[in-house]
Amino acid sequence: MLTTLAALTLAFAQDDSREARYWRIETCKIPEGIELEVGGLLQLQDGRVLACTRRGEVWSIADAFGPEPKFVRFAQGLHEPLGLVERDGWIHVTQRGELSRMRDTDADGRADEFETICDAWPISGNYHEYNFGPALDRDGNFWITTNKPFGDEPYGRAKWRGFALKITPDGVMTPMACGLRSPAGVGFSPWGDLFYTDNQGEWCGASKLAHIEPGDFHGHPWGTFACEDPLWKFTKPAAPPDGMKMPDVQGVMPSFKLPAVWFPYDKMGRSPAGFVWDETGGRFGPFGGQMLVCDQYQSSVMRVSLEKVGGRWQGACYPLRLGFQCGIIRVAWDRDGQLLCGETDRGWGSLGGQTMGLQRLVWTGEVPFEIREMRARPDGFELEFTRPAERKVASEASSYELSSYTYLLHETYGSDETDTAKCEVKSVELSEDGLRARLVVEPLREGYVHELRAKLTAADGEPILHEKAYYTLARRPR
Amino acid sequence: MQTQSKPKVVSLAAVVLLGACARVENAGPLPETRVLTCEEALEAEVLVSRQRCAACHASESTRVTPEPAPTLDTIGARRTPEGLRRWLADPHAVKPGTAMPDLLAKLETKERERALDELVHYLAAQGGPLVQVEREAELSELELGRRLYHEVGCVACHAPQEDAEDLARPLMSFPADERIAPQVSADLGSPAFDTEVEPLARFLEDPLAVRPSGRMPSLSLEGEEARAIATYLLRGRIGAEGIEETPGWRWRYYEGDFQRATPGFDGAKVVAEGRLESLEELPPHRPDHFGFEYSGQIHVAESGSYTFWTRSDDGSVLHVDGRKVVDNDGDHAPLERSGEVQLEAGPHEITVTMYENAGGEELSIHWKRPGGEKEPLPQSFLSHGSARMRGGAPFTLDARKVASGRKRFAELGCAACHTIEGRGIEAPKERKLAEIAGKIGSGCLAEAPRGAAPKLALGERERTLVRSWLTNVNALERPRSDKEELDATLARLDCRACHRRDGTGGPAPERARYFRETVEADLGNEGRLPPLLEGVGRKLHEDWMARVLLDAARVRPYVAARMPLYGPANVSSLPKLFASVDAPEPSAPQPFDPDLVEAGRKLAGKKGLGCIQCHRFNGVESLGIPAVDLATVRERVRGPWFRQLLSDPKSLGLNTRMPEMWQRVETANGTSLRSPVADVLDGDPQRQIEALWQYLSLGVAMPLPDGLLVPEREYELVPAGEPELCAVFLRGHTPRGLMVGLPEQVHYAWDFEHSRAVWMWRGRFFNAGGTWNGRAGGLERPPTSDAYEFPAGGALESDPELVPKALGWKLDAAKRPVFRYALGGATVEETLQPKLTASGAVLVRRVVVRSPASSPAPVLKVAATKKQLEFQREGDELVARAAWEVQP
Question: Would you give the DSSP letter of residue B441?
Answer without folding.
Answer: T
